[in-house]
Amino acid sequence: MVQKILILAANPKDATRLLLDEEIREIQEGLRRSKRRQGFEITSTWAVRTDDLFRGLLDREPQIVHFLGHGAEEGLALEDETGKTSVVSAEILANLFKLFADRVDCVLLDGCYSQIQATAIAQYIPYVIGTNHAIGDRAALQFAIAFYDVLGAGYPIESAYKFSCNAIQLEGIPEYLTPVLIKRGEVKLQQYEQVLKHYEEEFSKAVQQEYPLSQETRYRCDRFSSVLGIRNEDLKAIETRIEDIEEIRLAINNQSIRDFQRLAQAIMRQMRATDLTLITSPYFSNGSLWEITLPETGLQLPTQNAIFYLSREKDCTQHDRLKQITQQRNGAFLIFASVIDKCPHGLSPLQVIWFSPSSLTEMIVVPENNLLFWLARFLFGQINVVALPGMLPYKTRGIAKLFFGRENELARITSGEQRGGIIIGAHRSGKTSFLEKLKRKLQKREWKVIGPLTFFDFQSFFKDTLELLGKDFSIGMSLEDWSSALKAYSKNKQESRLVFLLDEVDRMIQKDLNSGSNLGHMMRALQNEGYCEFFLAGHAKLREAITIEGGPFRNFAEEMTLTGLTKEAAKDLIQRPMKLLGFEVDENQAYRIYEGTAGVAVLIQEFCLQLLDELRQSDVSEISDPMIEEIEQSPDFLDIVLEHYRYAQTWDSMAITLLTAIKGEVKRSDITEVFKHHGIIISRDKLDIALDFLKQFGVLQKLKNARFRILSGYLIDAIKANDPHSLLESELDKGRAE
């Protein structure tokens, strides 16, 4: 089948002269040389006018249409009756090619800035090639020659496009990225984003010149967006955002409000509030008072509900009424916005977030993709310091959802056919988050997972476990009744394993020990007989329980101790909530904190809390290295570090910790010699137990040369800041007293 190529050339006399004749000659010569030259029929038309376009497409019935000439963002430059420029818009071109969509396979537009026209035409034509910038004669010529050379060699259009871009590059011409290929139904995301950006720039210019827009300007913008092929939802988002910004800017500049409702909505939309509900009141200007839902940010707010109030008054006389409305509607926050520089004093005890003219101005110039980060940082600086600590992500239950990173431990405790698990860790070491992650993983296996539950007493434990299974509970239920109910449930649900996740089990273990360990033995029997299984998370009592020979929790299940996070997980814990609050911790700073804390989650959280406090007090938005160093040397933080590492330590393990911090590295012989010098003989078994504990809990690291060192740099600093020799002497005194 012969492919017909129609070349349309226009070089208006009032425009820069182009080498179009040379380009056409090279194209024709290239096709004559090709091995498939019999498969092409090429015709060209000069001095093309608008009616020539339609006539050429109708008479020649081409599969490939190639336009040579000038282009601009407004359209392609053809000629009028006098030979001068006549611009044809993208809209007209798209509508024309729509009529020939079943015949034309490819359109080439080598005029400058023709990507807009190409995008419009690509709604109907399979392949359209345009340019995203101005393109010189040499680049256009090289592209055209190579395109038809490759096409004549039997390659498809996409390959011809790639070869042609490469041909420009081989000639050393920097414009090899200027031609762009757009396929029907597959406008590339990058290209579409460029189109959106282009329209946003043009619409913003129009709004800045004339707001509100006149009917004529509005019509012109509508036509332009239609030509560009912008989706309605994207169009609305762009225009609303730009109009909102202009509305806010004008109100601030004029210190006046022409339309309360329009301005209030603009501010609320800009701050990403949702569920905007107007509150009507005879005491407030119509459209000034709203109930809203605040957006999710890095702050863990007690409620996302708030009351938004837009004020123009210079003296706030409505404080009591605002308090009453906020309290009645269960709003924890009052968002008070003003276009005049007047702070709303006297609203205590409410949480007042004040959007002053300067903060509103700052908000509307923040890039859209950074707006929520800015808002989080703004709220962080506005919320009352007394209420703030409980709202930080490092201090709330949200931490279990935000962070994890123990994938290796999770895989180990759920691999194979073993049943249940023991998870041991210090306070806030990540046990709860581990159980939450474990729950999601086990549920994917379609197992029945109950918990995590926290033990308070036997009867509430029986009640919680049975009611969640839909089983009856009666006051005074015996341990045997509880066990029988679980067995009955498991027998009826044989296709699914029943799993209990129990958190903070130290209280349960202590009460069970006091009553003869019957619950522990019953749990062990239920697990061994396959009725259900238990994953237990706890502290010192659980660690002690698994060492008791003959005890119910000895060899109960796979055992795991949670120590420091991996480097990547620790960096995530450091950087992600800070980012959500609008602050950046760079890679070097994050690694420094990770090294200092040895990845211990609770120490990372405490460090970041102190860092946030420093940021708030200094009222800066940049985290500096001196700020990091100040916290590293803070006595308050170092005390927290030392207290954390005292967890579950005996005198001998603590003495080894102190000795290692003093010396930097120690061998077993160093430890025994120091102990002996102080009149203490430590057995090999007892030394092994102490060293194993310190390694297991991430206090010490064993090096290749049989030496030990402390993992946490901050622990070394904390010990040295507290007279380590006196501390060591105190621990050794305890050993001598035994």
UniProtKB/TrEMBL annotation:
User: Which residues belong to any copy of the ORC1/DEAH AAA+ ATPase domain?
Assistant: 418-545
Coiled coil (UniProt feature): 182-209
Give the keywords, sorted.
Coiled coil
What Gene3D superfamilies does UniProt report for this protein, alphabetically? P-loop containing nucleotide triphosphate hydrolases
Q: Which Pfam families match?
A: AAA_22
Molecular-function GO terms, alphabetical: ATP hydrolysis activity
Q: Under which name does UniProt file this protein? A: ORC1/DEAH AAA+ ATPase domain-containing protein
